[in-house]
């Protein structure tokens, strides 16, 4: 991964349209709750995480440019999964050695009224909905911006199914905004975010 910052707004917008086209052709793609998205940023999307390709249907569902945070200290992705983040451009975060400059760069994106996507679980490893980390709550409270709990359904192992010419159902669901203000509890907002994500997911998730 060599691209440390999101690409320009027009490039990401075109990729969003292309993502919508691909998801619609290769899967049985649907979106629910899009009316819950604020008309403009900044706000934070907080999705569950089940596959490395989860940003693709989220990008397709929103279309508007998104700033994705991606773990720099994770295992290297295979080329067929790495090209998407490289082409779209992401903001790399070293979770084991978080730099002040990284926080400042995220703040700059928020000040530009960007939509920021942070996967609160921080990993695809493990079964079910994992415990949420506090990054989503931290940036939401610091900037007093809403969190949109988001469910991504049907992406686990999706590339293998696409290669087998199977059009699986893939769905993105946006929940009601969680509004934050200065002084809110990090742990409280984190717990509420994870609870709202869980409500959007199938019972057998």
Distance between the termini: 30 Å
Judged by helices, strands and strand pairing, the structural class is alpha/beta
The best one-word shape is globular
Order of helices and strands: HEEHEHEHEHEHEH
> How would you write the strand order of the largest sheet?
1-7-6-2-5-3-4
Gyration radius, rounded: 16 Å
Question: Got a strand count?
Answer: 7
Query: How many strands, what sense, and barrel or not for the largest sheet?
Result: 7 strands, mixed
Roughly what is the average pLDDT, rounded to an integer?
A: 91
Share of helix among residues? 25-40%
Walk me through this protein's architecture.
The chain is built from 7 helices and 7 strands. The chain has helices at residues 9-26, 55-62, 79-88, 100-111, 135-143, 158-163, 186-200, and strands at residues 28-32, 43-47, 66-71, 91-93, 115-117, 147-153, 169-174. The two termini are 30 Å apart.
